[in-house]
Specification:
Number of helices: 9
CATH class: Mainly Alpha
Order of helices and strands: HHHHHHHHH
Distance between the termini: 54 Å
Radius of gyration: 18 Å
Bound molecules: magnesium ion
Number of strands: 0
Oligomer: single chain
Largest sheet: none
């Protein structure tokens, strides 16, 4: 049988890659809280972090992060072939493959994820502002979109779980006509 990568190794490598690139899980959780706070009063950072951790357990998410971070690192070391080296290094605005890779994360969590992703990508809240700073000498062409997508996916997960909790608390909330 061909060798395969154990899921625990992939998960550990993903957490290492994020830490190594200067992104903490609390910073991603903060983005998720920023997205959901106005819909869920009292939403804690701990709850957001819990959902971020669950998102990071998905193999599709791990694959996307490891691929994107690797390309960022190679571009930073100037070892990619031209013209891709220049495109990724300069975060060329018409490239777009960084966003496409991030969509593979959003695909898992449905349409709320897309809206959240578009919004957080625009406002560049928290850690996203740092990742978009072009004066650090680091390349984060892929990582900024991946982090935004993980936060958006976590926010989507939070929204769905919140609704499930509401439904459990108010099982008779629907008017009788809806039951027909
Ligand atoms: Mg980008």
């Amino acid at each position: 049988m061909a060798p395969f990568v154990h899921s625990q190794a992939l998960h550990a490598a993903t957490l290492r890659a994020l830490a190594e690139r200067g992104v903490s899980l609390d910073e991603i959780a903060e983005l998720a809280r920023f997205l959901q706070a106005s819909y869920i009063p009292g939403l804690s950072l701990e709850e957001c972090r819990h959902h971020v951790e669950r998102v990071l357990e998905k193999r599709e998410v791990q694959n996307a992060i490891l691929t994107g971070v690797e390309l960022d690192k190679l571009a930073e070391r100037q070892v990619l072939s031209q013209p891709l080296q220049g495109i990724i290094e300069s975060d060329e605005s018409l490239y777009g493959i960084d966003e496409i890779l991030a969509l593979s994360i959003l695909n898992i969590y449905g349409s709320i994820g897309y809206t959240n992703y578009g919004y957080i990508d625009k406002v560049k809240h928290g850690i996203l502002q740092h990742l978009n700073d072009k004066n650090t000498g680091q390349v984060h062409t892929f990582l900024d979109d991946l982090v935004a997508a993980v936060a958006a996916a976590a926010a989507s997960r939070i929204a769905h779980h919140h609704r499930a909790r509401q439904e459990a608390a108010y099982p008779d909330a629907n008017p009788p006509a809806w039951d027909e």
